[in-house]
Amino acid sequence: MKLCNAIKASAAAVLAAILCAGCGSGTAECSVTPETSAVLPDAAAITTDTDDVMEESAAESKSSAGDVLLSRSELLKCIYYDDREFCSNEEKSVIYETSGEPLCGIAPHHLAAGHFIAGMYRTAAEKRARTDTVVLLAPMHYDGKNTLITSKNGWDTAFGASECDTGAAELFVDRLGAKIDDEMIQYDHSASTHIPFIRRYFPDAKIVCLLVSPKEPQNISERLADALYELSEMKSCFFAFSIDFSHYLDPDEADKHDKETLEAVLSGDTDRIARFTNANVDTPYCLNAFVRLSELLGANPEKADNSNTYRVGNLPYSRELYPEGVTSYFVYFAS
Fold it and tell me: Rg of the chain's alpha carbons, rounded to an integer?
């Protein structure tokens, strides 16, 4: 997987906002009134120094997760959040058909496909009887000294403060050797773009994130699935996987690889998935963890949606507009 830098991440978020603005009604009001307002940072603001972004505030926010008072100065920031973009994605989202109660789900981390993220969480919230914790597994896009990263801090979102499931974070530290790194969790868009959607649709649930580096050994998928299954025996969890699929190809080529990926996921072919490259999926180890966890939970993977940047952007395809090709997206559930 190609590692992007922080400036590219911000640029991608800005491009996503532009693409999404052209996909639907940008004038309709959002169905919720955010408690606070956050803005997308410019590229120069995204550095390894978080002093400006993490400026302390004396304000306190009451989290509905356990009615715990959380100091905003202690919370992670959703730096890629934008009010108008969020509302647009929510308006375009749908509640998907599933064969039962969703136990796991996959959605993209590109905000160009933010309506897929919204739809995945809307569906899970609608069809689950109870959710104590949303567990978010996401790929690591930045080089660092640690290859498994989690946090014990909650999040400051436009819909209120979320509380971290510190017990789950400690399990990741104890069972998997994960390290605490708030800065990386906050800045990697693979995790932070999902947080406002989680807080919006699961206001009473705690949240815990785990970032996984491609430098982890091949057996990481089994270890991840085992640890997540252990969590499922302790509490009612919804396991969300932040995954983008085919990269750098023309739309027709991407479609061919998407068909291969779908066949492998639905048949549970983890050996085949392990051999996938960026032509199929950005994080085969996360995708295999989804497949293995689904099997442990006795759940059946099913496809809910599929598209790519070319289709969701409503722009004619050309290499001038898409110099690096397209990125494809899936929404999967395991029910």
Answer: 18
Strands 68-71 and 60-63: antiparallel
DSSP secondary structure, 253-279, as one string? HHHHHHHHHHHHHHHT-HHHHHT--TT
Does any domain span residue 246?
yes
163, 207 contact by CB (below 8 A) = yes
Range of the domain at 207: 6-23+76-334
Q: How far apart are CA 318 and CA 11, in angstroms?
A: 20
**Mean pLDDT, rounded, of the chain:** 84
Could you tell me the CATH number of the domain that includes residue 187?
3.40.830.10
User: Degrees (nearest 5) of the Cα angle 238, 242, 246?
Assistant: 140
Torsion 293-294-295-296 (CA) sign: positive
| Number of domains present in the structure of the chain | 1
Cβ-based neighbours of 296, under 8 Å, separated by 6 or more: 225, 226, 229
Of the CA atoms within 13 Å of residue 246, those in its CB half-sphere come to 24
Q: How far is CA 259 from the centre of its chain?
A: 22
Would you call 284 helix, strand, or coil by DSSP? helix
User: What's the pLDDT tens digit per position in 16-30?
Assistant: 443 333 333 333 346
Task: Please give the C-alpha separations between residue 115 and each of 60, 83, 317, in angstroms, as whole numbers.
Answer: 31, 14, 21
